[in-house]
Structure formats: C-alpha cells, structure tokens
Amino acid sequence: MTYKILLLPGDGIGAEVIAEVERVLSWYGKHRGLSFTTETALVGGAALDAEGTPVTDATMKLALESDAVLFGAVGGPKWDGNSFDKKPERALLRLRKDLGLFANLRPAICFDALTDASSLRPEIVAGLDILIVRELTGGVYFGEPKEITTLPNGERRAVDSQVYTTSEIQRIARVAFDLARLRKNQVASAEKSNVMVSGVLWREEVTKVHKAEYADVQLSHILADNCAMQLVRNPKQFDVIVTDNLFGDMLSDEAAQAAGSIGMLPSASLGAKDANGKQKALYEPVHGSAPDIAGKGLANPLACILSLAMCLRYSFARVNDAVLLEKAVEKVLNDGLRTGDIMQPGKTKVGTKAMGDAVLAALDALPNEAAGDTRSI
Ligand code: IPM
Ligand code: MG
Q1: Most buried among 194, 234, 282, 333, by the most CB within 10 A?
Q2: Of ligand 1's atoms, which has the minimum distance to the CA of residue 136?
Q3: Distance from C-alpha of 185 to C-alpha of 191, rounded to nearest angstrom
C-alpha cells in the first residue's frame, strides 16, 4: 500500500515544522518500509498571496484524493484586515467541511519531562492524559444564517447560528465512546443545556447513544463553563471529553495550556469510515502560525511530529510505528533538549532543525519494536 500524503505547510512557522515532519517521514520510508508519495500545495495566507484564495479548488481536489493531509498552520498579521471570505482560516474550515472531518481528536498529555512547564502546579498536571473529542463540522462555525445585516433603523446586526442535528451529535458521541473504551472508559459530555436548546438536544442524544450502545462506558454530563473551571482545578478527573465545535475550540486550548505547552500538542481531524474502513484525515499541530518567530528556525516541531504519529496510528494503522515516534519525542525531552517555548533552567536550548535531528537520532537509537505501550496520542 502506497499512501498519498498532501503536505500543506501554510503560513508562519508552518513551513519549518512541516519540513521536520518530511524528514521523519523519509526516516519511516527508509527504515520501516512506509511507502508513500507526497505532494505539497499552498494554503492560507500563502495561497491568498499567490493564488488569490485561501485554498484553491485544485488543492481541494488533491486533499480529497489523499490518504492523509499534513497541515502546518495558517494566518498572520499581513492578512488580519482581510474580509471574512479572504481570511487564511477559511482554508482550514473549507478543508474540514468538504472532507467531512467531523471528529477532531485533541490529546492533552503532560510529558513527565515537562511537568514543570505547565502554569499549573506540577502535582496537578503530572501524568495528565486527557483526550478532547471536538465536533468539527457543525455548530456555530457553520450554522446558517451567518450574516451581518443592516436594520431599518440603521443599526447593524450580526447572527451566527448554533445548529446541531441528532445524527451529527450521535456520530461524534460514538467516536468518543469508542476511544474511551481504549482508555479509562470515561466520557464527560460538555454542553450548555441550561441555556441552549442545542445543548438540551446534545445531552439527550449522547444519553441515548450511551444507553443503547455503550452502557459499559462511564458517562457524565457537565456544563461547558464548569468543565473549563474543572480543567484548571483538577484536570486529571477527565479521561475523554466530548463537546461541540465552539466549546471544543476553547476547552482544547485550555487543556493544552494545562498540559504544558501548546507547542507540544498534536491533533487529528477524521471523517467517517467508508466500506473499506478508510477515512479522510487531516493532521495538524494545535499551535498556530506564530508569526513572531516565523522564519527564524526557533519553532518547536514536536507538535507537528506528534501529529504524524497520530497519522501513523489512525490513517496507516501502524500503531507500533506511532508508539516508536512518541517514544522518540519523549526521549529527546528526557535528554533535556528544549525549544524556546518549553525552555527550562538547566536544559539545552535548540532550534527547529536541531530538534528534528534529535528526533531522528532517537528513532535510530530506540529499539525498533516499541510495542505494548497504551499511551493514546
Ligand atoms: C483551531 C483554531 C481554528 C478554529 C481557527 C484557526 C479557525 O483555533 O483549530 O482550534 O477556530 O477551529
Ligand atoms: Mg482553536
């Protein structure tokens, strides 16, 4: 099986971190028999500048034909003043929507070596391992109407619509329950059923799916604001959190910071499985384009590299290879290497490429059969 991979480096530090991922991919080609072809295309501000649109139809076609998309980051001050349709972020939203990537998996894991990097006390975050399952193609991001109109009295009025159907809620709930079964078997479903009817439906449908298909999984319901508070009070109470698009956007940033550095966290955006078990997929670091350090060789490539580990796991069914890559990242951290964003006293500060070199050296050094680990990045 030769996998088709589309690389979309995007803007800012996207190109630098994707370059390290390409080197890791080559390592897997050479040493682990991974067979793949890559294509690279523009996206975000880079595509706006060169092609006049955040993502062209041709790039969308490449994405639809690929087995996995590896995405860097989009956005930057240059395009901040752009009209809504010409914002670099539209590219990401179109990719998510047109590829049907409804399930966004955002692990928030605190690596032992980085326990002190969190803004929370070490004992609160040591061993933290949460998975946020965010609904990604519905809710207020895509609901209609979505418009700014002018009222007869001259006032302007903006509307975003929070819309969910039963099937949209049920399918994301199933993803969360299935993943929980591979972990600690607990799901917390977060919504605002106290003020939103979409929250009422969310709670009812998650409960239905649970009762009918996943009664063995421990389910709790939590209001999203309380969930935000609990994430900084006692994050280790959670295993899997399932939530809608907007709450998931916010709770995943919060969980990422609790875990240490947003520069460390990967994500997977997955579509529905077809009859052959194949699904569309896009992998991206949770961090953004970091324009302030772009082009300087300072960016942390580990979140993007860990996103490739998720790709190995979910798109290529190579769990051992995914674990090997996660272990290589862990080794590099244990050896004391740090990019600026995770720098700690007494550690060795390195740039993007040196971090990539270290991961490759760790891959060479680790025993090639790193199996049996259940860590769930
Ligand atoms: C994320 C980002 C995106 C989102 C932006 C860049 C559109 O914040 O992936 O969390 O809001 O979903
Ligand atoms: Mg976000």
Answers
A1: 282
A2: 12
A3: 20
Catalytic-residue membership of 236: no
Indicate if 108-260 has the same CATH topology as 1-102+271-377: yes
Q: How many residues does the chain have?
A: 377
Annotated catalytic residue 314: no
> Edge-to-edge strand order for the sheet containing 68-73?
36-40, 3-10, 68-73, 281-285, 266-270, 103-109, 129-135, 240-243, 186-191, 218-223
Token pair listed for 291: 């324009």
Reply yes or no on domain 1-102+271-377 having CATH 3.30.460.10: no
CATH code linked to domain 108-260: 3.40.718.10
Tokens of 167: 């099937």
Average pLDDT over the chain, rounded to whole? Answer: 95
Q: Where are the domains positioned within the chain?
A: 1-102+271-377, 108-260
**Index of the ligand 1 atom closest to the CA of residue 92:** 7
Residue 75 is predicted with a pLDDT of 97
Check pocket membership of 89 for ligand 1, CB cut-off 6 A: yes
Would the CB of 249 count as within 6 Å of ligand 1?
yes
List pLDDT tens digits, range 221-278.
999 999 999 999 999 999 999 999 999 999 999 999 888 878 899 999 999 999 988 9
Query: What's the rounded Cα separation, in Å, for the pair 329 and 334?
Result: 9
Identify which of 79, 106, 135, 249 to mutate to test ligand 1's pocket (most ligand atoms within 8 A of the CB). 249
Full-model pTM: 0.95
CA of 253 to the centre of ligand 2 (A): 6
pLDDT of residue 263: 84
CA of 101 to the centre of ligand 1 (A): 13
11 lines ligand 1 (CB under 6 A): no
What is the four-CA torsion angle of 134, 138, 141, 145, rounded to 10 degrees?
Answer: -160
Give residue 369's pLDDT band: very low, low, confident or very high (50, 70, 90): low
Query: Measured from the CB, is residue 256 less than 6 Å from ligand 1?
Result: no
Alpha carbon of 76 to ligand 2 centroid (Å): 15
Q: Which residues have CB less than 5 Å away from ligand 2 (the ion)? A: 249
